[in-house]
Request: fold
Amino acid sequence: MTKKVIIIDDSSLQLNVLKMKFSKDFWQVRIVKNSIEAYSTIYEIAPDLIITDAIMPHVSGFGLVKTIRNDEKISKIPIIIYSVLPENNVKLYLKKERPEFFFSKEKNVEELISFANETCKKNPLPEKYKNEILNTKKEKVEENIKKIESNTVNSLESIKEKLEHVNFLNDDKKILSDCFNILYSSIDYNLAIACVEDEEEGKTIFFDIRNIILSPILQSTLLKEYDGKTPVLNKQYAPNLKIIHLKEDFSSKVEFNFNYLDKNIGKITIFSLKTHLLTNEDKEFLENILFNFFRTRFVKKNSQKKKTEKYFTNNSIKLEKNIEKINEYSAYCAIVKIANYQDLAVYLSIEDIDILNIKITQIITQYLENDEKIFKEADDEFSLVIFEKENELAQKRLKSLNDALNSISIEGLNLKSLIGVSNCNFNGKFDLKEAQKTARKTLETIQKL
Reply:
């Protein structure tokens, strides 16, 4: 009897190649480009096997596996994760799920077909089981699909949550590689370029190439445009599929420019062969997330010598550009004091202290708007400049920040932070040092209490 397989991949070319090869081996093949369509197709044909890519927009292959394994009617269908990801990474992700099969895209298709035949032989599905799948009520399938679709609405929130767990102690290449992987799980792009600014080393370009190849001329053009010193090709997911000669060959382009403390600290450009890449809401959402990444990197960065260098500005920074906002809003200077920092430093290792500083910095930067400022005063003290229309709103924001900082725990030790704040709207004139003095007096009063 002819075996049936559903193959899921967001690359049309990849799908067509696999369909042609599997059909020649007498498989009945259905190809689909996303996980939601795949779920519906399972109930249409009751396949003997599912082959899915791992990294796809909206619902990844891993998400599809989880959905299938949580559905009793189809949970026994064998699944092959067909990916360029390292096998250890795939197995680590799936360790809480039922054991799946993995096959690397770096091997040839003939080997995949042989592996698929062997997998079906070892994991046969009874005809009765497949008939039960085919006889499932259409209404039930549609109900389940609605649940899956509703989960994808929160995909950008999921990106934010995942990005917040990126380890900023890694070098830039690893950090950006992790960020790109997370972004690609929900955004359908073909090329991303990150231009990272470094005060000492200048600019560095990082390419993230998916299912395309850039012609040497275009690579050279992009390097010249961004004026990068060291190009790094992080990944090349499906080589030799489509060669892009000009930027105009892409249908969509989205740029994010990031400035902090009057300096350009980075830029990310995302290209797609599809016309609609991001909605305006998605773009604004991502811009805030990516800006937090660049700002966190800017205020604290690992050097090549493995010593932590802090890139906070000093107090001489001028805020003239914010005068208009100061006239409309009230400006507040807040002194954030880590009350037990010295005690923690005694008990924690140097590595743990670095991680602690990263956590503190990440939380603070996530509470700041784009035009607000952060200054590093000492290991245990920060100055913030925030803008709010009402004092009550400013106090509420700072209380939330303080609660978030006090929730930090490392090696079983909890952080204790205090915040002193002063209103520093002096008729449109901003004197940071005077504002800090007032905020520090407030802080000293709180400490005595």
